[in-house]
Amino acid sequence: GITTSTMQAKSLMKSRFLLRAQEASHNAGTAPGFEFINKVTLRGTVQGAPRFRTAQSGRIFGSFTVRTSQNFQRDGQVFTKDTWHKVVAGNERIVEIAKGLSENSGVYVEGVLQTRKSVDAETNQERRITEIFATRVEPV
Question: What pTM was estimated for this model as a whole?
Fold first, then answer.
């Protein structure tokens, strides 16, 4: 008969085949060896106080805005361009770290970009919001 190790080997081979098929489907139209990467790294200052809310599931989420600045020179003059980034914390550990942040404190953030749809309560128009879902937050 078929041994347990033979069945496990066949199951593993099937899993690897399905994983490769999923990757091929996901990466369709890309060059061989191409990998998708969605990673964001920021170092800036917290703008405003972090906000926290509890979802219907009981899970606590935090959000805060990080300002980054970029200096550049044009025609001998130095200019500063500020960019504001919305950061969302959904992991319990990261929410606890975010609770310790305050306005104008330095922060280092790693995460992934995510886009979601939202309906504006006043205009009832749908809009897309791009934010960073934090996987690491450290005060600096």
Answer: 0.71
Contact 44, 105 (CB under 8 A): no
- On whether the CB atoms of residues 89 and 111 are closer than 8 A, the answer is no
Closest Cα partner for 87 from 118, 104, 60, 108? 108
**Rounded CA gap, 137 and 140, in Å?**
10
Helix intervals (H) in 2-140: 4-26, 92-99
Indicate the pLDDT class of residue 32, thresholds 50, 70 and 90: confident
Q: How far apart are CA 139 and CA 3, in angstroms?
A: 54
Amino acid identity for residue 12 in this structure: L
